[in-house]
Design goal:
Layout (H helix, E strand, L loop, with lengths): L1 E6 L7 H8 L5 E4 L8 E5 L2 E5 L12 E4 L4 E2 L1 H13 L8 E4 L3 E2 L2 H14 L11 H9 L14 H16 L9 H15 L3 E3 L1 H10 L4 E4 L24 H7 L6 E9 L1 E4 L12 H9 L12 E6 H11 L3 E5 L9 E10 L2 E3 L11 E9 L16 H14 L3 E5 L7 E3 L1
Parallel strand pairs: 1-10, 1-11, 2-5, 2-10, 5-7, 6-8, 7-9, 11-14, 13-15, 14-18
Antiparallel strand pairs: 3-4, 12-13, 15-16, 15-17, 18-19
Helix pairs in contact: 2-6, 3-4, 3-5
Bound molecules: guanosine-5'-diphosphate, 6-O-phosphoryl inosine monophosphate and magnesium ion.
Magnesium ion binds next to loops.
Length: about 425
């Protein structure tokens, strides 16, 4: 069976931490979409690591880490991540597998990402500028280069053909600063290192593993509200971040999916542009940003903060078929007198509990319910029963309103600060 773990909001829900915690219960951890736009933070033994493409099971001995065909890979970032592992003394060379059918991010994709954003001016997506959009465009446009192409004789020919296409395309955009030649040289050197890893037919590898009774955890990147189909389009990423993306991003059939673990913070954040109904522009939002250290793990940008939004969460629980929830960063609410949650939206005076097609800040107003805070530290608490009464009540209220079991509560960044309920 393949269990799935993914974000239910706009990303950064703490997927990295929970995958790292759960990984020992699995044989394989597999990323199924996204690329180096992701930043998954892991903290243990006083150390901090940020992973972008390599699955978050890599620090757990003996576990295989598969980068699926749905992922887009930038060899430069990938090698930097490998260096991070080398420095930490992690043995990984035989435990990282890369899908032949995963697409490659070329330096020109990064250039086009930046140029496209520059051309949009104020209406820019707020992309991480890692080349994600242009790479997925080449994939669906049937022009892309795949990891398997690196092993083919005509690789240079294919590379040059794509580069020429990019060159022509670049003329429709404003020029942006980038030493393309230097980046291309670096890229080609990194490709040689990438080729030293095991490159597999992801779909057959997983089929064999499942037939042998192995357990697989699919690790999502971004969040469901950034999904290309169901997110707040066009302010989304370019892949399917929801459970459906596991099937296409790893080559597995739907009936192989077991548990779907949805992750949500006890409040909400978003980085980049786009609608965010429960966003706070006041000192409460600022307080959440400070208490939660809400700055992007990939870009360092300050994250926008707001109250937890149950309309939005119910929508993504439905889309993903979530069977259990991990509630994270509950400790960030420790100092609050009252905690709010958006239970419905008022749109043009009408109340709705469905996430709308478009979010217009001028006509949409979240309807909040207030809950009493617990106003105490959660340090050292390891069981649900030991949580302050008001914190227990808050978790139970969310569980009831979301109609889904909350199976984990995270009370701090470190690996050990997790209550299994
Ligand atoms: P991801 O992209 O979903 O993996 O999340 P990020 O790594 O971008 O952001 C997670 C941040 O929150 C990191 O700095 C973590 O160390 C930190 N973190 C994780 N869980 C908790 C928690 O329960 N409480 C607090 N205060 N911080 C947490
Ligand atoms: P993790 O896996 C938060 C956001 C960007 C931008 C939009 C499109 O760490 O949760 P892209 O680079 O994909 O073209 O950007 O999506 N975004 C993320 N926000 N967490 C992420 O990943 C994100 N990956 C992309 O900020 O608004
Ligand atoms: Mg992140």
């Amino acid at each position: 069976m393949i269990d799935v773990l993914l974000g239910l909001q706009w990303g950064d829900e703490r997927k990295g931490k929970i995958v790292d915690y759960l990984a020992p219960q699995y044989d394989i951890v597999a990323r199924f979409q996204g690329g180096p736009n992701a930043g998954h933070t892991l903290k243990f033994d006083g150390k901090k690591f940020v992973l972008h493409t390599i699955p978050s099971g890599v620090f757990r001995e003996g576990i295989m880490n598969l980068v699926g065909n749905g992922v887009v890979i930038d060899p430069i970032t990938f090698v930097k991540e490998m260096e991070q592992l080398d420095e930490a003394g992690v043995e990984y060379k035989n435990r990282i597998l890369i899908a032949k059918k995963a697409h490659l991010i070329l330096p020109f994709h990064r250039y086009l990402d930046a140029a496209s954003e520059a051309s949009k001016g104020k209406s820019k997506i707020g992309s991480t500028l890692k080349g994600i959009g242009p790479t997925y465009m080449d994939k669906t446009g049937r022009n892309g280069l795949r990891v398997g192409d690196l092993l083919e004789k005509d690789f240079t020919q294919k590379y040059n053909a794509l580069r020429n296409k990019h060159l022509k395309l670049s003329f429709i955009y404003p020029r942006v600063e980038m030493d393309l030649q230097a980046e291309e040289e670096k890229w080609l050197a990194c490709v040689e290192q990438l080729k030293q890893l095991t490159i597999v037919d992801c779909e057959f590898y997983l089929d064999d593993a499942l037939k042998q009774g192995k357990k697989v955890l699919a690790e999502g990147a971004q969040g469901s509200m950034l999904d290309i189909d169901f997110g707040t389009y066009p302010f989304v990423t370019s892949s399917n971040t929801i459970t459906a993306g596991v099937c296409t991003g790893l080559g597995v059939a739907p009936q192989k999916i077991g548990e779907v673990i949805g992750i949500t913070k006890a409040y909400c954040t978003r980085v980049g542009s786009g609608p965010f109904p429960s966003e706070l522009f006041d000192e409460t939002g600022e307080f959440l940003r400070k208490e939660g250290a809400e700055f992007g793990a990939t870009t360092g940008r300050p994250r926008r903060c707001g109250w937890v939004d149950l309309v939005q969460l119910k929508y993504t629980i439905m889309l993903n078929g979530v069977t259990q929830i991990a509630l994270t960063k509950i400790d960030v609410l420790n100092k609050f007198e009252t905690i709010k949650a958006a239970n419905a939206y008022k749109i043009d005076g009408e109340t709705t509990e469905n996430f709308p097609f478009s979010v217009d800040k001028d006509t949409l107003e979240p309807v909040y319910e207030a809950y009493e805070g617990w106003k105490s530290d959660l340090d050292g608490i390891t069981t649900f029963e030991a949580l302050p009464e008001k914190a227990q009540e808050y978790v139970k209220v969310l569980e009831k309103l979301l109609g889904t079991r909350i199976s984990m509560v995270s009370t701090g960044p470190e690996r050990k600060k997790l209550i299994v309920c």
